[in-house]
Design brief:
162 residues, mainly beta, Immunoglobulin-like, elongated
Length: 162
Amino acid sequence: MNSLTTRYGRPALTPLSEAVDQLFRDAFTWPRAFEAPAGPARLGLRSNVYETDDAYVVQTLLPGVKAEELNVTTDRNVLTIEGHTAIAAPEGARGIWIAFSGAEFREQVSLPGEVDAAKASAEYRDGVLTLTLPKAEKARVKTIKVTGQSGSQPTIEQAKSK
């Protein structure tokens, strides 16, 4: 069975003591949605990953990102997309509700098989990055031709008579 894994900076399970501490911190602080991010933020990239016989196709939403600000790499079967957005506030304006702003992002996806990075292609149009990542030759499904005699197997009686 093929699997797709997205790696994030935090573990999937938070120890109970940390969760309770976080609950109390959040209960007595200003909602984070009203704050400007203090450091690099995660965009939580939204992506589609498809598989054909010969390649993996990845579509990622990246609105507000300039193509020259993107860095896409592969290492065997791990795809990494990183870059940053630069959305400036209007001059002289003070933030009241900041739902998005400039941020750095880095997303890694483990694909089911290795890719041939030398033959990969990328297209960025209307805020959507589309990557076509051909499968490495050793990762492709191969058909093995069966040769031999066609027809039915001899019966036990026919075999005894020989």
